[in-house]
Amino acid sequence: MVDILHQVGVKDASADEAYRALTTLDGLSGWWTENTSGDPSLDGVIQFRFEPGDIDMKVVALDPGSHVRWEVVDGPAEWIGTHVDFAIEPDGDYTLVRFIHEGWAEPVPFMHHCSTKWGVFLMSLKSLLETGAGAPAPRDQKIDAWN
């Protein structure tokens, strides 16, 4: 198994603000995809809609202000059964968001794309928290034919 790992520091945003951006429909649609719906509570399923594909995540762990974990229940074949994990930690003037997309069977070319796109979207999260405006899909930076 292989994982995608990223970390972003958000200046002058609290852990609670970061947590809300990861656990509310308004927060998620502000940095990942504008077309977000569903139930972001524990055991709920959140639907994320993109062009050209869709992803459904089951919320499997919520620790207020510190941790969010999802299981991919529908989406690209390579994603099914993987987990997306956000750990939130204050660090001086920053709040660190440590990201893991874990459980990939192998590092296929699509994983390389997804790693870069997660980085793009984590920078969108940083922008949302620091400036009030993220760049969620469909306004995200396109990187290749997969988007």
TrEMBL record:
All residue ranges annotated as the Activator of Hsp90 ATPase homologue 1/2-like C-terminal domain in the record: 12-130
Query: Which InterPro entries has this protein been placed in?
Result: ASHA1/2-like_C, START-like_dom_sf
Q: Which Pfam families match?
A: AHSA1
Q: Which CDD domains match?
A: SRPBCC_CalC_Aha1-like
In which family does this protein belong, per the annotation?
Belongs to the AHA1 family.
Q: What is this protein called?
A: SRPBCC domain-containing protein
Q: Which organism is it from?
A: Leifsonia sp. NPDC080035
